[in-house]
Amino acid sequence: MQQDPNARLYYSELDSVADYVLLATDGDEPVAKAYSTPFAFGIEGREDLPDAGWDEVIRWQHDDRLVGRERNAATALEIVVLKERQGTGIASVMVNALRDNAFRLGHQVLYAPVRPSQKADEPETPMNEYAFRVRDDGLPYDAWLRVHVRAGGRILKVCPLSMTISGTLAQWREWTGQPFDTDGPVIVEGALSPVLVSLAQQVAVYLEPNVWVEHRKS
Asked: How far apart are CA 50 and CA 56, in angstroms?
């Protein structure tokens, strides 16, 4: 995921969105961090949340910052929990903290292009099928989507092109340690969908689907 070229448009300019970046600590120990950003929504050309999800909203917020455009919405971008603290409820704390922070900063809504982590267990399942799967209690099947819904989020739609990562086969071999010696879809551990390989062109492309979730101030 660190090979997405759009990431630098956000992470290299964190000083400009410092109020939207949160750190959780246990005493002096950092245990989680959360990233979000404001962006302009509902203007011409941005009437709907983009199919290109994470990538597109990062490009939008970057353009907004460059031209000084008023940013009326906010989006979550990433939540990271220390590995040994995962499964302890910190993820829910961070989702709620991002919501509260966006509302505190004057936004009426926080969007999130959510990456359902358990989808990696079944990369060939279409995201349109997976995202709306529910348990017997009516909550989402996926644990990460479940965290968002329990926090008050509402699943809106799939963003099928949320992250696009392309590279030569040599780069993909370096990134993953896999041979990439067959044409067509290749399963990579941790990926939510297969990587598409062309031996003739010596390139591979990963198109990751995410799920747009809306957190609206009540």
From this structure: 7
> Would you state the pLDDT for residue 218?
86
Residue 153, pLDDT > 90, answer: yes
Residue 170 near residue 178, CB atoms below 8 Å = no
Burial 94-118 (b: 16+ CB within 10 A, else e): bbebbbebbbeeebebbbbbbbbee
Mean pLDDT of all residues belonging to the chain: 97
- Smallest CA-to-CA distance from 190 within 122, 144, 130, 114 is with 122
pTM: 0.96
- Where is 211: in which H helix or E strand? strand 203-216
Instruction: Provide the pLDDT for residue 165.
Output: 98
Place of tokens 């993953």: 176
Q: What is the DSSP string of 41-93?
A: -SSTT-SS--TTHHHHHHHHHHHHHHHT----EEEEEEEEE-GGGTTSSHHHH
pLDDT at 1 over 90: no
Residue identified by tokens 């290299």 is: 12
Retrieve residue 206's tokens.
Answer: 């990963």
